[in-house]
Amino acid sequence: MIVCVAVVGHQLLEDNKYGYLTNTKVKFILVTTDLDVRDADVRNFFRRFHSAYVDAVSNPFHVPGKKITSRTFAERVSGIVKSFGLSSAG
């Protein structure tokens, strides 16, 4: 199951890639062009993202294996992504 996909374009960018595997074998991948990322920020990102994912798939109206269509999930993920790395800024 694909949770998030981002298309950057045809630009050649340097990036860092991080992976997270849940105990149920769900894989999350974080790709960032910020080359100065703290490990604590990555761990916090995955912890928060995993929590949002678990809440979304635990919804009794969610069909396992299908796309997550929850507006709450989308808003939580948006907030998590927007706040990524802010604790190390400035």
From TrEMBL:
InterPro entries: Longin-like_dom_sf (IPR011012), Sedlin (IPR006722)
A GO term from the CC aspect: cytoplasm
Family annotation (Gene3D superfamilies): 3.30.450.70
GO biological process, one term: endoplasmic reticulum to Golgi vesicle-mediated transport
Protein name: Trafficking protein particle complex subunit 2-like protein
